[in-house]
């Protein structure tokens, strides 16, 4: 009885998200572990998912570091980490007070109390299990019993959004009301007639019939490219195999009626977008901002687009509204065409057989939106609803809206107060930052259904992790990716964040999109377009890719997985100054070039260069307080194992390090008890702690985000004790780091550094 009563008390103390996770997965989420409160288990599973899905990365760093990381990674269940979610907790954040009293007293007291509970730890607490999440013993055995007992007490959890369910919730109640096959156009509007015009971009793109020789050209011949300069976007690179570059210019002013928008959107878009127009000085367009106008010009031409200058602080919401308008316009036009043809087929004479009504794909989903967090999905749905509502009096019917707000909304009380974080951090991690979700959205005329089954949805909004768990891996019994077979618009927003989560999920998605389905799913083949029957869907799919930076992995997806027959357009502006100009401390920067035969050997070459040329210079005790910034977790594991083997005096912090161990590591490094601190980029991305006591900096590799370079360098001023003359900063780079290097030092210096094989010394005075 005592155990059962304790179990009930534990259950009552859990939040609604904790209860949901407990019911779905049979164990309490490790994020809520009182000892280990780490927020990035679900964000970056690049090591843990190897044991779950047996990923094979294309990068050589995984193979080179696999043997080094085996001893630590295999201690944790990959399934355990896969299902974890990113969530900021008051407890995990509460210890981050940047005052001296917190460093001197709070952390020390907590460290002693935590350290006294652990056995077998040395003075530094540097055992391997500091970087591995702990699984709560007994949680798996009792989770279902506790929830069953709660239901027995009279609580109905079958449809309450505060509780999880065994089967993922989908709305089947409104199936017939949102069926495309059994509904008809309410009225033959002027917009339906406009959609049939040859000048309509939607009809032009979807009705073009490619020939087999054209498909063969796109599969075998390289793309030709050309450049153009636009007022707002800057330098654009157009590439295509079939189409020669046609001068596509962004009009200075756009008439909404000339964009061939679905009729309701012509009136709602200016109202919804008014908030951004107010921020523009002397707007020359009454409907679009200059950025939106040029982006939508490309979107509406159905070309692929890569825009690597998305900023959560400045233009993030502008871009979100623009692609929501394009996606909704596409869906409304496609559905209107189907409903109109339904009426024609109904009214045709018996015995009449026609092949003119091919207007569908093999499955219904047309648009797939990949976003990193639930908050992003929430904002997208709000934009879609706003675009469908003509005014406050004409509200559209939205099914399951209350449940959606409960599961995708955020609780203001969960956010810890008085945390000092950069503005970009607050913008990225606003609202509900759970990264494991997926939801189907069905739109039919003046109604919207949330939580529609995928095969009855028009739009699917999901995170990479959420879509990955549905697709599954080869050999798994329960997996499904047929719903991706007829995707016509793929939108990948904030692609840079997926580099901090798990890029393998994005690659896995791209390998399973636009494949022939394994089942018919009740499709009427007489209505299916020939392009889908010929398995040519990928040549008609439009891909919109938005990122905050240019990265080789993101470029690779755009170049190798986008086959749009009308071509691709990518923004390729080069940075003129670089983030080094934002360093405010007087600091000498030494850029040391390493040589590698090819891009696959650069991982091993960097490691060898570091231990042979760089590390010996810092072994002396006079070079204490040395922070080594490591972007890759695999490189971090490799270095940590080497430091242990060489018995160096070091401590380490990564995305899996426990809260208590982080406190100890920061204190030991500040007081000089540990000479080296290994520090991962993902820890900095998800925490943004200020590390005090740094005197020497080593960038093992250039940061993924260029502004991280200046942020880390400016940490040296956190403990200004008059010894700034001894500060040093060393950066390792190769010729394959040209993009990252340009983002840090600017394009002119990058060209000089790549031409010269000598080390480059730069001195920043704080006024650059």
From TrEMBL:
Superkingdom to which the source organism belongs: Eukaryota
Biased amino acid composition, Basic and acidic residues: 349-360
GO molecular function, one term: rRNA binding
GO biological process: maturation of SSU-rRNA from tricistronic rRNA transcript (SSU-rRNA, 5.8S rRNA, LSU-rRNA)
A Pfam family hit: Utp25_C
Keyword annotations from UniProtKB, A to Z: Developmental protein, Nucleus, Phosphoprotein
Domain called UTP25 C-terminal: residue spans: 579-763
Subcellular location: Nucleus, Nucleolus
Region spans: Disordered: 59-142, 340-360
InterPro entries recorded: P-loop_NTPase (IPR027417), UTP25 (IPR010678), UTP25_C (IPR053939), UTP25_NTPase-like (IPR053940)
Cellular component GO terms held in the UniProt record: small-subunit processome
Record-stated family: Belongs to the UTP25 family.
Oligomer status and interactors: Interacts with CAPN3; the interaction is required for CAPN3 translocation to the nucleolus.
Protein task: Component of the ribosomal small subunit processome for the biogenesis of ribosomes, functions in pre-ribosomal RNA (pre-rRNA) processing. Essential for embryonic development in part through the regulation of p53 pathway. Controls the expansion growth of digestive organs and liver. Also involved in the sympathetic neuronal development. Mediates, with CAPN3, the proteasome-independent degradation of p53/TP53.
Name of this chain's protein: U3 small nucleolar RNA-associated protein 25 homolog
GN (gene name): Diexf
């Amino acid at each position: 009885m005592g155990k059962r009563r304790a179990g009930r008390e534990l259950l009552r103390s859990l939040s609604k998200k904790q209860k949901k996770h407990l019911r779905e997965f049979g164990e309490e989420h490790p994020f809520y572990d009182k000892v280990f409160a780490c927020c990035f288990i679900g964000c970056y599973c690049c090591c843990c998912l190897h044991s779950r899905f047996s990923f094979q990365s294309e990068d050589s760093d995984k193979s080179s570091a696999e043997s080094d990381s085996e001893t630590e990674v295999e201690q944790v269940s990959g399934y355990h980490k896969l299902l974890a979610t990113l969530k900021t907790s008051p407890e995990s954040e509460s210890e981050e007070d940047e005052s001296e009293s917190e460093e001197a007293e709070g952390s020390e007291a907590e460290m002693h109390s935590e350290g006294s509970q652990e056995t077998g730890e040395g003075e530094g607490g540097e055992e391997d299990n500091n970087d591995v999440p702990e699984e709560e013993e007994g949680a798996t055995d009792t989770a279902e019993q506790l929830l069953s007992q709660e239901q027995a007490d009279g609580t109905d959890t079958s449809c309450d959004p505060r509780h999880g369910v065994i089967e993922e919730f989908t709305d089947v109640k409104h199936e017939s009301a949102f069926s495309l096959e059994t509904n008809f156009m309410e009225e033959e509007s002027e917009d339906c007639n406009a959609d049939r015009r040859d000048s309509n971009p939607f009809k032009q793109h979807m009705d073009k019939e490619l020939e087999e020789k054209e498909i063969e050209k796109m599969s075998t011949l390289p793309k030709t490219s050309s450049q153009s300069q636009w007022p707002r976007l800057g330098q654009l690179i157009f590439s295509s195999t079939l189409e020669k570059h046609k001068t596509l210019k962004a009009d200075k002013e756009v008439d909404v009626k000339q964009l061939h928008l679905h009729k309701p959107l012509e009136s709602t878009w200016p109202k919804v977008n008014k908030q951004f127009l107010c921020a523009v000085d002397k707007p020359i367009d009454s409907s679009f901002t200059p950025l939106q106008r040029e982006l939508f010009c490309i979107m509406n031409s159905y070309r692929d687009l890569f825009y690597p200058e998305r900023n959560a602080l400045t233009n993030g919401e502008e871009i979100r509204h623009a692609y929501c308008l394009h996606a909704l316009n596409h869906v409304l036009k496609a559905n209107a065409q189907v409903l109109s043809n339904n009426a024609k087929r109904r009214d045709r004479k018996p015995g009449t057989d026609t092949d003119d009504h091919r207007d569908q794909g093999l499955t219904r989903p047309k648009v797939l939106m990949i976003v990193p967090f639930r908050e992003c999905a929430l904002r997208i749905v709000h934009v879609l609803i706003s675009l469908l509502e003509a005014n406050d009096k004409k509200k559209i019917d939205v099914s399951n809206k209350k449940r959606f707000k409960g599961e995708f909304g955020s609780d203001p009380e969960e956010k810890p107060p008085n945390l000092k974080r950069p503005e970009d951090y607050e913008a990225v991690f606003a609202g509900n930052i759970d990264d494991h979700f997926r939801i189907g959205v069905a739109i039919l005329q003046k109604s919207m259904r949330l939580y529609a089954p995928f095969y009855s949805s028009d739009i699917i909004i999901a995170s990479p992790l959420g879509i990955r768990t549905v697709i599954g891996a080869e050999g798994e019994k329960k997996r499904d990716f047929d719903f991706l077979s007829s995707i016509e618009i793929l939108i990948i927003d904030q692609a840079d964040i997926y580099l901090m989560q798990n890029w393998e999920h994005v690659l896995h998605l791209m390998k399973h999109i636009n494949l022939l389905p394994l089942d018919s799913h009740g499709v009427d083949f007489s209505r299916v377009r020939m392009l889908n029957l010929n398995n040519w869907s990928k040549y008609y799919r439009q891909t919109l890719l938005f990122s905050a930076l240019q990265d080789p992995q993101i470029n690779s997806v755009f170049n190798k997985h986008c086959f749009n027959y009308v071509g691709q357009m990518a923004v390729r502006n080069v940075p003129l100054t670089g983030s080094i100009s934002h360093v405010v401390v007087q600091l000498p920067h030494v850029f040391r070039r390493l040589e590698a035969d090819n891009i696959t050997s650069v991982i091993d070459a960097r490691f060898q260069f570091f231990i042979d040329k760089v590390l010996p210079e810092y072994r002396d005790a006079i070079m204490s307080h040395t922070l080594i910034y490591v972007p890759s977790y695999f490189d971090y594991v490799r270095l940590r194992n080497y430091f242990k083997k060489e018995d160096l005096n070091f401590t380490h912090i990564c995305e899996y390090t426990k809260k208590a161990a982080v406190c100890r590591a920061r204190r030991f490094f500040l007081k000089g008890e540990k000479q080296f601190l290994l520090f991962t980029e993902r820890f900095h991305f998800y925490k943004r702690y200020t590390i005090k006591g740094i005197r020497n900096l080593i960038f093992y590799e250039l940061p993924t985000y260029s502004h991280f370079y200046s942020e880390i360098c400016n940490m040296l001023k956190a403990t200004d004790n008059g010894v700034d003359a001894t500060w040093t900063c060393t950066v390792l780079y190769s010729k394959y780091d040209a993009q990252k290097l340009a983002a840090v030092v600017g394009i002119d210096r990058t060209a000089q550094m790549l031409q010269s094989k000598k080390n480059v010394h730069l001195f920043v005075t704080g006024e650059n």
